[in-house]
């Protein structure tokens, strides 16, 4: 069973969604994400990457097609599907007066995880924020905030972690740090999916790359073969 199965996914934004009313953002996209690896979803701005991620996250309704996360259909088994995935969004959204520890505890509460089973300390250590446990989020650097976002997405111990453009607009050093963290999580058994518009990032990190452009899948290959094509 694949980690994620995407079958003929179609998204037409309605007039009520704003600027791109009637716009076909996904034109029947199908692919599987195998378990255990780092999978790259590559494409230029506007290709449909965020739309796809947001559908998996349950934040955007699809127009047609289907998807399964860890074997759970996103419509018929929405709750289990959502519990099987952790999403690291592009935008950093924390209450500035919450501490990293509180951010993780609140998220655990949101998932109904009993106090004894929470792993906030462990997660802070994994993203190297133990020393910032009780600092206000507003005092954290951009890199620390991004690492906290990753910890927040792992609170419910999902088998799959999806990162939406994790390194967009970050400097070289922070990019390296985030790559290292993603690789570590993968080595611990988490299936990783990341969207990016940097080919070099996908090449460096991912063993398999799917490319979408204008809402269509134009390639889905092991990285080695893809590079060989270029
Ligand atoms: P990417 O993440 O690859 O940059 P998106 O999924 O954000 O691409 O966007 C795909 C297309 O859908 C773009 O043409 C974008 O303008 C359009 N789009 C995205 N979100 C909305 C929305 N809420 N309403 C209308 N059109 C949208
Ligand atoms: P629900 O639909 O179950 O009410 P929401 O989508 O409204 O859940 O999410 C509530 C909060 O939990 C938000 O802060 C959201 O960002 C976060 N959240 C929900 N699902 C995930 C996930 N899979 N990974 C990370 N954060 C999530």
TrEMBL record:
GO terms for molecular function: ATP binding; ATP hydrolysis activity. Keywords: ATP-binding, Nucleotide-binding, Transport. The keyword Transmembrane helix does not apply. Residues 4-230 form the ABC transporter domain. It comes from the Bacteria. The keyword ATP-binding applies. Coiled coil: none annotated. This is ATP-binding cassette domain-containing protein. It comes from Qipengyuania pelagi. The chain holds residues 8 to 237 of 316 of the full protein.
